[in-house]
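Sample entry (197 residues):
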Amino acid sequence: MEGNQTPPRNVEVGGDGVISSPRLDRERFEAIVDVVYEPLQRYARRRAPADVAEEVVADTLLVIWRRLREVPVDAPLPWTYRVAGNCLANLRRGERRRARLVDKVGRSAARHVVDLHEPPDPGLHRALRTLAAADQEVLRLWAWEDLSPAEIATVLDISANAASIRLHRAKGRLATALGKVPAGAGHRGSDDTEEVT
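Predicted structure, serialized as tokens:
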């Protein structure tokens, strides 16, 4: 706008001199969406399951609307991909936080249950307590929660191979710890058997 003219109602002139109105913003948004929508969907689907990809697309479009003036006019797609990557990273961080919280609540509840009841094998529990917390957790997920290594991997946010290796090593450490538990705890040894005549 030239001079001291006042812009019409519903029209804003930004500090950068760009004229904006709800109608113009909507038209610009629709033009950008026409260019980026299908490539954005492909981008998200290649990187996440369908339900997460839909959420990434929706979140990205919301950011485009909110930051409409920041979207490059001549090349909106790379900017959109960067925003989508950030949206996906945010969703994944949120999922990991939720998984850790569920795991923490589950461990807390399990501790209270164990504290309220006498464990069925005190020797096993003593041996388990001698292990590192990570070994205890992988063994509990396997034995108490009846999870497969692939499911343990999901809970711990590691690969299935890493979960299998951790489980194998934790079982070995538990077996060693059980060998160090005082006699009378856990399974009976050969010297405890009665001789039949």
